[in-house]
């Protein structure tokens, strides 16, 4: 168990430690967190733990139940709603970010995809999640629409938690990483419409993969928005 150090405000350290444990799966979905237990394991008083848990609840990584705070279990319906938001928001954000990305930025995105592939070959899925997260975060942060960025940031932690829980439940082949590379190739062409279409296709394929495993009888056909040009 990690422990806090004196150089940084304690509740921020506790927040970062527990957040990493949640997103890595070390603290699994539905796990109940004990304020006193965390304080003892981290070597701090209960006050910074209480504040950190409040922050994690604001991020929706923890949710309140009659038995106390637990790691958000994210029922399948909520995960599907997260995907629907991502399809709409991140696809358009990628389109808007094309003009903001430098050639060096695009090379860095390409490196993230390559590092994801290498990590997948080693079956180091924690690193796969980390590189995939950097890929999507960089594209989202380059969007020039501040309100859109803020909206995506509000859902950021839920998206991370959903991704971590999916990897914990369903290991998949690395074909989706080729979809990341297809986005990069569209960025190299500086083609906003193609970037948006490929990002939408990628996230919708992720959604379909999850739906086929969580609701096999409800697996969808092609997303009509992809052919409608939305």
Provide the descriptors you would attach to this structure in a database record.
2 strands; globular; 11 helices; mainly alpha; 230 residues
Question: Nutshell version of this structure?
Answer:
Residues 8-74 form the HTH gntR-type domain. The chain has helices spanning 10-23, 35-42, 46-58, 76-97, 103-121, 125-141, 146-154, 156-169, 175-188, 192-214, 224-228; strands at residues 62-65, 68-71.
Write up this protein:
With 230 residues, this protein is mainly alpha-helical. It is 69% helix and 3% strand. The protein has helices at residues 10-23, 35-42, 46-58, 76-97, 103-121, 125-141, 146-154, 156-169, 175-188, 192-214, 224-228, and strands spanning 62-65, 68-71. A two-stranded antiparallel sheet has the order 1-2. It starts with 9 loop residues before the first helix and ends with a helix. 31% of the residues are buried. This is GntR family transcriptional regulator. It holds the Pfam family FCD. InterPro entries: GntR_C, TF_FadR/GntR_C, Tscrpt_reg_HTH_GntR, WH-like_DNA-bd_sf, WH_DNA-bd_sf.
